[in-house]
Amino acid sequence: MFSTKDKENHSKRRRIIADRYANSNVMREGSLHGLQERSENFMKKCSELPDQEMDVYVWLLYEDIMREVSFGGNLAKRLLGLYSPALGMIINSGIFGKPSGAPLSEKLVLNGVKKGGVADFTLVSRLQEGKFGLGPIDIASECMDHMIAGIETTGDALCFLMWQISQPGYEKIQERLRAEFNENQGVSFEQLPYLEAVVKEGLRRFPSIPMSFPRCVPVGGRNIDGYWLPEGTVVSCQPYSMHRMDETAFPDPEAFDPERWLEEEGLAERNRLFFAFSNGGRACIGRHLATAEMKILLRDIYSKYRTLPAESMTADMSVDDQIFTSRPKDQKCLLKFVAWE
Ligand code: HEM
């Protein structure tokens, strides 16, 4: 789907897949169970830390297969190959280091597809429906792209967010999260306004893909904001600017302030400008899944622990621009997990 430039074919493929990523499907017991299990593994790891310290950058992208996919910077490279084939070919040729194919993950996905017997709510089961006429390579390639699109983005967003709220001066955010969790035990993570505000502010301030989402001006050209753009012109828009430019909607835009999402006044405009998942026909299809994953993990962590930067943490956490995606510059984020008293 990612690489389908033609609008009609793209929409066709997207229509096949869309229901698997609908919030109603994400909120099904089977999908939630998988997310909860992932969070429980993370919590188990937290409870076993000998010195309470964890490199959350690594653990948010954990499991060997995930690491292989993510650490190779594959999303950035694949997108680069798609958006700028000439530049992509040079970068992926190995001139800038070992090319990072993902043979292990590719094999795993392909074998999984061939084996069959997958749960009925999954993407694979949908793609395997005979009426779509898709072969195993096509299905595996679609799944592989979704894996890559989902892991790095969600992991990086969580990592930046947790680092931010672990800084001195931000303890109140953690305390307020904990209070909301305590007061709402048994309530769905979807119904927690402060958690929603924290996640949204994290994605506003640290969008996993801060850079341009290119689009082609359609046949006939278009007039945009008084400028005539001939058909085929590549235009783009990026979350980095959308989340900062309008200081009426986002006063003090560099400040990390979840409260701004709780104010009724101007909320519709803030939501309109929120661009971390893009908008329109090519917007992130995994938005509900990513949000659910982030919320479940944050709820589990901050119900039990407060986090602060580990004493030995000297790595550079500034945002490293990976052409399309972003990640912490030194790819390391050591946090200390201290159980609440
Ligand atoms: C915080 C996490 C995430 C962020 C910030 C994010 C962001 C984005 C953005 C901005 C796009 C549009 C790119 C463009 O317009 O060119 C996109 C597309 C996409 N995302 Fe996500 N994403 C996240 C998580 C996920 C997850 C968990 C999945 C699935 C497992 C996923 C699957 C996809 C797919 C398949 C597309 C292509 C959609 C299409 O071409 O129609 N994403 N994502």
From TrEMBL:
Its cofactor is heme. PROSITE patterns: CYTOCHROME_P450. The keyword Iron applies. InterPro entries: Cyt_P450, Cyt_P450_CS, Cyt_P450_E_grp-I, Cyt_P450_sf, Cytochrome_P450_monoxygenase. Heme binds at C284. It holds the Pfam family p450. Keywords: Heme, Iron, Metal-binding, Monooxygenase, Oxidoreductase. GO terms for molecular function: heme binding; iron ion binding; monooxygenase activity; oxidoreductase activity, acting on paired donors, with incorporation or reduction of molecular oxygen. PANTHER family: CYTOCHROME P450, P450, PUTATIVE (EUROFUNG)-RELATED. Belongs to the cytochrome P450 family. This is Cytochrome P450. It comes from Cylindrodendrum hubeiense. The lineage of its organism: Eukaryota, Fungi, Dikarya, Ascomycota, Pezizomycotina.
